[in-house]
Amino acid sequence: MSVQKTSAIDGKHASSGEKRGAGIIILEIAAILIFILFMLPFLLVVLNSAKTSKDIIISPISWPSDWTLIWRNIVTIFDNPSTDYLGAFSDSVIITVLSLAVISVFSAMCAWALVRNKTKWSTVIFLFFVSAMVIPFQVVMFPLVRWFKIMGDAIRFPLLGTYHGIVFAYLGFGCSMSIFIFHGFIKGVPLELEEAATIDGCSQARTFFEIVIPLLQPTLITVLILNGIWIWNDYLLPLLILGSAGAVQTIPLAVTSFAGSYLKQWDLILTSALLAMLPIIVLYLFAQKYIIKGMVEGAIK
Amino acid sequence: MKRRGWVDFLFIFPCAFAFLMVIIVPFFLGIYYAMTDWDGVKSTVSWVGFANFSGMFSEPQFINSFLVTLMYTVINIVLVNVVGFLMSLLATSRVKGRNFYRAGFFIPNLIGGIVLGYIWQFIFNNVFYDVGLTYMGQSFIARRETVIWAMSAVNTWQYAGYIMMIYVASIQAIPDSVMEAANVDGANYVTRVFRIMMPMMASAFTITLFLTLTNSFKQFDLNFTLTNGGPAMRFMGSAIRSSQLLAMDIYRTANQFNLMAQAQAKAVVFFIILVVFSLAQVYLNKRREVEA
Prior knowledge:
The structure holds two protein chains of two kinds. Chain A is mainly alpha-helical.
């Protein structure tokens, strides 16, 4: 559904035919109140990130007297020797970007091959991928760690505590849903275009990368957003694969280890929470339309 | 066509291999380990049958976690969906700036449960305490009577905006003519919502109920950083953690006590309950969709 259309039909069902009256004013007040309620926690984080621990205990709701404290808190966090916050940030970026790259390319390839090669086997493989979506993380997490250890020892190439290990794990966990979404889209793409390319002498792989991938773009955005937000915020998988004190860390791991070592030092904990939220909120400000569309479509499919 | 089959294999292989190694093998290994004396330390394990399964149902902490998870799930399904639905009505009404509100309500859902848990721990223990929003003079998350409700409130704040968006998409798909016809026939707003909109949104309800059910049942992150299972209470004669949900109970059984096999047995039970609940829920909703 295009955005123009969305805004054109907005508000059509609320009070069609009725004039703007007392009802709409009550609704507008309700909207403002709910909005304030929803934003208040974020405001409290910002306010208290600009205070000292002592000021927070005196009053957690007062306006900060000196906004430059926010910078001092950030510097304290960055300088903290026990938690490498900047390192965790770059690791989070590396892991998220690499995982998204392999999940989107390999899932699209897999879904395309499964749709275009209609056999009994392709149906069975597809059903396998889809039915595994009901398996909760909790039931595979401990055996996964042991299995990664065994595999890593066998190939003399450690999977635990490494970038490639966690990216491989994210490919395994993320591909089911991504294949499912791509599969649904590719089914509706007419075959003629690909046939024309084949007649022109285009190889199968080139047809995929030069003809099919550009067609997949809207679905690709959905897949990137759904997986990106999950991976960026994920806690348990990095904890188990990377460990809480390993060389590779992510933002959620850094926040918990920080909060664990600075118990009740809310000025620093809240500032670290603020730093953890900021990248996603900034991204949201720019790509709001795509993020909402991606997450809602991912759920409906 | 031999070449075609070979390329297809190469295209399917990366996902199939990762999927096999990350989900399928650990899944079956997990079922096997649940019936052994696996402790995470020694390299060999021996078969013990169903001993790990029978033990958990007499363990006070597990029974409490099970009951509390059910309660938490039911509260969330009701709260998140009622709030999300009301917000979707608001966000599709003629309110000025509705796109802005919609975008705002969605934000909490983008932030991970780990970070939100710390923020809300601060709000309950410091901010609410400071302004006198407490229960019996204590923070809501420090009393076992209120802690589950506090967690549900935070979960609703985090999740209702997302559920709202699914309802909004569904409301926008209702044809104009249907609502206008009802309006001409003299149906008032409440009647239109209950008799026309809601039945036409049946498939959206199937999705949102499924999402809220599975998400609440699997809750870990928020539980971990908001309450960490606390406060302590006495149950069946032993001291336990009153707000420790099942996912966290599984994690702690393995992590704090090194009881890997028992944790794995709990995880298998957790998996079975989750599958039964979600299949039953989807089945009931699909049947209702057909009737509607």
